[in-house]
UniProtKB/TrEMBL annotation:
InterPro entries: Leu-rich_rpt, Leu-rich_rpt_typical-subtyp, LRR_dom_sf, LRR_domain-containing, PPM-type-like_dom_sf, PPM-type_phosphatase-like_dom, RA_PHLPP-like. Coiled coil: none annotated. PROSITE patterns: LRR, PPM_2. GO terms for molecular function: metal ion binding; protein serine/threonine phosphatase activity. Keywords: Cytoplasm, Hydrolase, Leucine-rich repeat, Manganese, Membrane, Metal-binding, Nucleus, Phosphoprotein, Protein phosphatase, Repeat. Residues 1078-1107, 1142-1151 have a biased composition (Polar residues). Its main location: cytoplasm. This is PH domain leucine-rich repeat-containing protein phosphatase 2. It is an enzyme of class 3 (hydrolase). Residues 790-1038 form the PPM-type phosphatase domain.
Length: 1337
């Protein structure tokens, strides 16, 4: 088995997946050649459950023996396939959901082609290839017979032959009888193994099922009522006993005679169900019920049936037979593609509720108006262009549900005639006008919903009793209402400059006018006597009326993102509880704010220019109830801390990005209720030891300061998260034991931090430990050109218990100077983002081999990743954003281009000349009108919160395939040429850009030189602005010149706060100490994140280079300038060997399960020795110059990937001394290794969500070797322990040339003497071309 197949097994969790693909042989390939209308269909047997229980998406779906490969064409029908196979029929299953029988004339291969085209595939050849991929079975699958689902079968019907006794009297004898549990009844046949005789039916609803203790595996079934009957049934096995007991208990516990057969893939009603004549409620939702035939809807004539649900059955025609069930009071026919309602609907005089949503109706029959008892009528998401006159006669209907239709004009005269209508829902109709000319008062309407239409003005003053109005997301410039009974007004996201309401709405309690163009608040707002909540966020307000803030009813005021320069003074005590004034121009707050607003619990004044905050009280005793205080991004200094002490109930304090040089210890000790403290972005050098007094503190965020001493927080009993990144820590004083609650510790960006092995051992239980990857560099490292970009990222879980976002970041992607960055947001799930992070980079590499057209390879990358999600992608989904920096294929030496693709709500913005340039498209129903129309045309039900089927607000996602065709994986693709004016790129998820605008994000990053610190600042700002969700940000710093030259000018000065991977680092030569291989000498580098499952020895070897007790050399050596492909640096070659400092056992330390791995070709393991075959002369790698040089290894990057990494080249051989371990790789293997993000960057440490750490972070060399693609020409070695007798072995033909090159470089690099070749080697001609490098383990 090839290593590539082993990697597939690792991801899919089943060798069956690989084996099934081997069925596709030369015969099948010959069949596909030359005609894209040819293909093959994978047929699965029906003897197993199509979706077996599994722990994750990697579980195998079906044993291999159930798979057959059938060659066919797009014109091949089901009838022809069945005749060829002597089969009875074919079934199709979409997304692991329902199974439908195919009609004889349907064409299976064409169904697959149409499905793939709907997903987004456009190339016929690619469609043909995808259709032949067996992995597609998680999206669409064919069965040769109906698959058996044990759970559904058990819910539908239980039957068997058991010993039965009737009645409680002992006089009755036990007899073998067939027993059936179906619907709501227990059916007992009078003759064994036959249903020809009399059937005894026992209704169970309201009855009892009890265990008979004196007899093993025996149940007593009793009906309800005065003349209750009893049957004893003795089961043969414990399994049967438990199944029957479980199902019968559900039936008897029902309060009504309800039979739920929804989502069963039924084509007919089970025949035994007709014995249950007591059924009153029958749910057949989401099936494939037929109108005719045995068990069809024509037979559903239960005499007592009151409720019938036939929604989502693809009926196409209204089942007229239903109109004969005169007892019906509730009928649901939603989503059945109905075009017309028959006149027989008038027979259902008892009907009270009729749901016809999601069909193609454009008119209603007159007979419908005769249903006098009808009080609920659902007509949403149909094709009505006007309000039907039939509704005038339906006097009992009080709600008009017509959302998602095509009503473009609403005439209030029509509403006036329907005096019974109180609630009108006309969302998503494309309304353009509301006519109110010559209209009498419309007095009956109390609730009106006009959201998401195209209205530019609205006058509803004639609706005099209106209580609730929703008109958000229109284009309203003016709004006029009657205020007699108005209680709630929501008019956000419009263009309102004024709102006219007369008379003053004294009943108004909630009003949302956010995201409009209001420059002032109308006077009537201050006169509202009962207003409790007012939202005027994101307007153009310059002042707030004094009477408003002094209102005796207002409890919540949101006035952020305006132009307020002052807040009026408070004249008296007010009941205000929530006050949000962020993003204004406030220089001060009212002096009496805190002791006049004694109920104030939440205050957010972030992003202002405050220099001081008001006192909490006028005396020493404070009555403040403030619990959350956000002061981020102001001009506050340490003097404000004395004023915070009075808020003794404070739980959350954000005072980040101010001018704090210190935080008084005496003040901090008094804040005993504090739970979350954010001090980031100040100038603190220490956090007072009195922080230990905050016993409830669970989150401390203090990154981007000048802190040198680790605070005394590890003794706090509830501490969960500590972020001290981007500081100046040098050491950590640890207590005897750490609190069990500590889950995340971030120490990245502390260039001088020294961590000993015992410290790492103490940290081993922490779920997520983030450290810098330490590395040393040499002057020879300049032989590889560095990339013209570098990145940093940050993730915050917020108030969630888990992190549902992931990052993919590869600064050196593929063969040339390229990069790949991506973010994935799973909203409520963490599985899909993690899978995308691990696979999407590899998929992009593969797609780049097939096409050079940006829209093609990006689109196919998303579609293939969607398929690779497997079973996890059936019910779960994720937003995704992928950015690929590259040269145009037509001009490899020209300018760089940035190709961006996205689905969902993740966004990318480029900073060009200090201005934001949006590069992505938000695929949400609220922000994209085209997608809203597409989803409406496909007859999806959009709920009031603008979610597809109430699940997601996104119209395009990776995963959530069960929502197809409403939610698709096809991405938006855009390519932007990069130029020298492009400074950086920002990637963020929905939570980030909902709180931080593009312009603010750009200004924020411009103020911070370090991309990692900039990303952290963005996330901290979003949290301080009120975000409670998962936040994710990636910042990519760009250094691109006019001619795409990436040379870096020498740095004139260094900022100690900027990590050395941004400025020129100080290379340190580390001498390994054999006596203490775990002692760490830490220098700066890339971040590494450790999972608690990692052992201390692993952490020690991966966190940094090893050193002896002697201090490493601290001589400052200037880093060579970064050189580009246009101006290459002088090539240096050297051979250097270091003894290993890491100890590797025979156990699997690389995170891979070695039990299911076949032995790797070329790697021979024998006890403690590992031999790796190296074919030197077959290596294709050459030292390149000019434009080829970017394809070489980037030693600056590899220095961060491999601790103590030193690399040297000679005659097509690359040798890397990594922690003293020799790596010999041929050129083609290097190319393959660099092309695979999963091997170059994704195998290593884990993020806090359990996913793998992104690029440039350390990864174990064994993991690289095991995961790299194998070819015939070369192999990878693995690290080994030091061996004093280890020598570098060279072929005789290369010895002289190596010596000459080393001699020519002696003035630049001091290299160890070349070891002499053993005589045995010189005398062995067979080893001239191949040699073995033996490493002692």
């Amino acid at each position: 088995m090839t290593l590539c197949q082993q990697r597939n097994i690792k991801r899919n969790g089943s060798r069956g997946c690989v084996t099934r693909k081997t069925r596709f042989g030369s015969r099948e390939r010959d069949w596909l050649k030359g005609d894209t209308q040819r293909g093959c269909v994978c047929l699965y047997g029906g003897t197993v459950d199509p979706q077996p229980p599994a722990s994750g998406p990697q579980a195998s779906s079906t044993p291999q023996t159930d798979l057959q490969l059938v060659l066919c064409s797009t014109s091949t029908t089901v009838e022809e396939l069945c005749a060829q196979r002597d089969g009875q029929g074919l079934y199709v299953q979409l997304h692991g959901d329902l199974v439908r029988r195919l009609d004889a004339a349907e064409r299976p291969l064409q169904i697959v082609y149409d499905y793939l085209a709907a997903l987004g595939y456009s190339d016929p050849t690619r469609v043909q290839q995808e259709a032949a991929n067996s992995d597609l079975s998680c999206l669409i699958r064919f069965y040769s017979e109906r698959p058996v689902n044990a759970d559904q079968q058990e819910r539908t019907l239980l039957k068997g032959v058991f010993s039965v006794r009737k009645g409680k009297s002992q006089l009755h004898k036990w007899a073998e009888r067939q027993v059936i549990l179906c619907g709501t009844c227990l059916i007992v046949a009078s003759v064994k193994d036959s249903l020809t005789g009399k059937m005894h039916i026992l209704p169970l609803v309201g009855g009892k099922v009890e265990e008979v203790k004196r007899r093993q595996h025996c149940l007593m079934f009793s009906s309800a009522g005065y003349q209750a009957q009893t049957y004893f049934v003795n089961f043969d096995t414990l399994v049967d006993y438990q199944r029957w007991h479980r199902q019968a208990s559900k039936v008897v516990s029902q309060t009504i005679c309800l039979v739920d057969l929804s989502c069963y893939s039924l084509e007919a009603v089970p025949e035994y169900l007709f014995y249950c004549q007591d059924i009153t409620h029958l749910n057949l939702r989401h099936n494939f019920m037929s109108l005719q035939g045995p068990g069809g809807l024509i037979d559903v004539l239960f005499s007592q049936l009151k409720s019938l649900n036939l929604s989502h059955n693809r009926l196409g025609l209204f089942p007229e037979c239903v109109c004969e069930i005169l007892t019906l009071t509730e009928l649901n026919l939603a989503c059945n593609s109905l075009d017309i309602i028959p006149v027989q609907i008038g027979n259902l005089q008892s009907l009270q509720t009729l749901s016809l949503d999601g069909n193609h109706l454009s008119s209603l029959p007159e007979e419908l108006g005769g249903l006098n008892q009808l009080n609920g009528l659902g007509l949403s998401f149909n094709n009505f262009s006007h309000i039907s006159a039939v509704l005038e006669r339906l006097s009992a209907v009080d709600k008009l549900a017509m959302a998602g239709n095509r009503v473009e004009c609403l005439d209030l005269c029509t509403l006036a005639k329907m005096s019974h209508l109180k609630n009108i829902d006309l969302r998503l109709n494309g309304l353009r006008c509301v006519k109110a000319e010559n209209t009498e008062a419309v007095s009956q309407v109390t609730q009106l919903d006009l959201r998401d239409n195209c209205l530019d003005s609205l006058d509803l003053s004639s609706i005099c009793n209106l209580e609730t109005l929703h008109c958000q997301r229109n284009q309203l410039g003016t709004l006029t209402l009657s205020g007699f009974t108005l209680r709630m007004l929501n008019a956000s996201s419009n263009r309102l400059t004024t709102v006219n309401i007369y008379p003053v709405p004294n009943q108004l309690t909630h009003m949302d006018l956010s995201q409009n163009l209001l420059e002032y608040l109308p006077d009537w707002v201050c006169d509202c006597r009962k207003i409790e909540m007012l939202d005027v966020t994101q307007n153009l307000l310059f002042e707030l009326p004094s009477r408003l803030l002094n209102s005796l009813s207002l409890r919540k005021l949101l006035a952020g993102n305006n132009h307020l320069e002052r807040v009026p003074d408070l004249l008296d005590h007010i009941p205000l509880e929530v006050l949000d004034l962020q993003h204004n121009k406030l220089a001060e707050l009212p002096e009496s704010l805190f002791y006049k607003a004694l109920n104030l619990k939440y205050l957010n004044v972030s992003a202002n220019v405050l220099a001081m905050i008001p006192p909490s009280s006028q005396s020493e005793e404070s009555l403040s109830t403030l619990q959350e205080l956000y002061l981020t991004r102001n001009n506050l200094n340490e003097n404000c801390s004395a004023l915070l002490v009075g808020h003794q109930n404070l739980r959350i304090l954000h005072i980040a990005y101010n001018q704090l040089f210190s935080f008084p210890a005496s003040k901090l000790s008094k804040m005993e209720m504090l739970e979350e403290l954010n001090l980031s972005g100040n100038k603190l050098k220490t956090i007072p030891s009195t922080v230990s007094s905050c016993k409830r503190l669970h989150t401390l965020i203090a990154h981007s300061n000048h802190i040198t001493v680790f605070p005394e927080i590890l003794n706090l009993p509830e501490i969960k998260l500590v972020d001290l990144s981007c500081n100046e820590l040098t050491e950590i004083q640890l207590p005897e034991s750490l609190p069990a609650t500590l889950q995340e510790l971030d120490l990245t960006g502390n260039s001088s931090l020294m961590l000993e092995h015992k410290t790492l051992n103490v940290f081993s239980h922490i779920t997520t430990l983030k450290l810098d990857q330490k590395s040393t560099t040499t002057p020879g490292d300049s032989l590889s050109a560095s990339t013209p970009w570098n990145h940093g990222y940050s993730e915050m879980s917020g108030q969630r218990n888990k992190l549902c976002v992931s990052v993919l970041a590869v600064d050196r992607f593929g063969d040339g100077v390229e990069a790949c960055y991506g973010i994935f947001d799973g909203d409520r799930n963490e599985e899909v983002p993690r899978l995308l992070q691990c696979t999407m980079g590899d998929v992009l590499c593969e797609e780049l081999q097939h096409s050079s057209v940006d829209s093609v390879y990006m689109c196919n990358t998303f579609l293939t990743s969607h398929r690779k999600l497997g079973m996890a992608g059936q019910k779960l989904g994720s937003s995704a954003l992928l950015c690929y920096i590259h040269h145009e294929p037509s001009d490899p030496g020209g300018c760089f281009s940035l190709t961006v693709a996205n689905v969902g709500t993740c966004q990318a913005v480029l900073c060009r000349d200090g201005r934001p340039v949006p590069l992505s498209k938000v695929y949400s129903l609220e922000s994209c009108r085209e997608e809203m129309e597409r989803v409406k045309l496909s007859k999806a039900i959009i709920t009031e919160d603008n979610k597809v089927s109430g699940v997601t607000c996104c119209s395009r996602l990776l995963g959530c395939s069960y929502l197809s065709p409403w939610v698709l994986p096809k991405p938006w693709v855009h390519t932007e040429p990069l130029c020298s004016q492009d400074e950086f790129l920002i990637l963020g998820n929905r939570a980030l850009f909902e709180r931080v605008s593009f312009q603010e994000a750009v200004c924020t990053v411009q103020d911070v030189r370090d991309p990692r610190a900039a990303a952290k600042k963005l996330c901290s700002l979003a949290q301080s602005y009120g975000c409670k969700d998962n936040i994710e940000a990636v910042v990519v710093s760009l250094h691109i010149s006019e001619d795409s030259c990436t040379c870096e000018p020498p740095a004139s000065s260094t900022d100690p706060r900027v990590p050395p991977h941004i400025l020129a680092p100080v290379p340190v030569t580390v001498t390994p100490g054999p006596s203490d291989p775990a002692t760490l000498s830490c220098s700066s580098g890339a971040v590494s994140e450790f999972n608690s499952e990692t052992s201390a020895s692993e952490v020690g070897s991966e966190a940094g280079s090893t050193a002896s007790d002697e201090h490493p050399s601290s001589g400052h050596v200037a880093r060579p300038e970064r050189r580009c492909s246009l101006h290459p640096a002088t090539t240096l070659c050297l051979f250097q060997r270091q003894p290993s400092s890491a100890t590797f056992s025979n156990q699997s330390d690389n995170g891979l399960d070695s039990d299911d791995e076949a032995p790797l070709e070329g790697v021979i393991s024998n006890g403690s020795k590992l031999e790796v075959e190296v074919d030197i002369h077959c290596c294709a790698f050459q030292l390149r110059s000019a434009s080829d040089s970017p394809k070489d290894f980037d030693l600056e990057k590899r220095g961060s990937d491999y601790p103590n990494g030193k690399m040297c080249r000679q005659n097509s051989v690359v040798v890397s001394a990594t922690n003293g371990c020799l790596l010999a790789v041929c050129g083609r293997e290097i190319a393959d290794l660099k092309k695979s993000p999963s091997t170059s960057s994704l195998f290593g440490k884990k993020l806090s969500n359990g996913s793998v750490v992104a690029p440039e972070d350390s990864h174990n060399l064994i993991e690289v070797a095991l995961e790299a693609p194998k070819k015939k020409s070369g192999y990878f070695t693995a690290p080994a322990q030091q061996d004093p007798e280890d020598q570098l072995i060279l072929p005789p033909g290369l010895e002289q040339e190596v010596r000459e090159q080393l001699r020519s470089q002696t003035t630049l690099v001091s290299a160890p003497p070349l070891p002499s070749l053993p005589p045995a080697f010189k005398d062995t001609p067979e080893l001239k071309w191949d040699t073995f490098v033996c490493l002692n383990m």
